[in-house]
Design a protein that fits this description.
It is built from six helices and no strands. The protein has about 140 residues and is mainly alpha-helical.
Length: about 140
């Protein structure tokens, strides 16, 4: 028998099912989050005529700036395993304290100085819980 007849009798493997792989990608939990986001946008648009106006979108973008400045570098820190979420805690403490001082009629300049002092006092403790400092997460 020749080698050509042997090769022609070899079973041919079926191509992988592309439909099942594409459906598995849609069944991830992120897809559910996208659906919840779309549902909340549709609900907001149906309940308020002021939802998603140009002014509203402008203020959303304006308010996202400081969160993005803090979140983008922290994303890299968390991805590398140097998990240090105390920066977000300091942001929460500082903004709450500034709101408290403003509500109690402090001059804004004095309130900002006081918040900066409290933030500077908290800086040495922000890196003390990261894995590189010897503190490891419990498994």
């Amino acid at each position: 028998m020749s080698s050509n007849s042997t090769l022609s009798q070899a079973p041919v493997a079926d191509p992988p099912a592309k439909n099942s792989a594409s459906w598995r990608g849609l069944l991830r939990w992120e897809s559910g989050l996208v659906l919840v986001l779309l549902a909340s946008i549709l609900f907001g648009a149906s309940e308020s005529p002021h939802f998603l106006t140009s002014t509203d979108v402008f203020f959303i973008g304006l308010n996202m700036g400081e969160i993005a400045i803090m979140a983008l570098p922290l994303t890299l820190i968390v991805m590398t395993g140097e998990i240090d979420l105390s920066v977000a805690s300091m942001l929460g403490l500082s903004s709450t304290l500034l709101g408290y001082f403003f509500e109690h009629h402090w001059p804004i300049a004095w309130a900002i100085v006081a918040v900066l002092i409290v933030g500077a006092a908290g800086v040495p403790s922000t890196g003390s819980s990261s894995p590189s400092s010897g503190c490891r997460r419990s498994q």
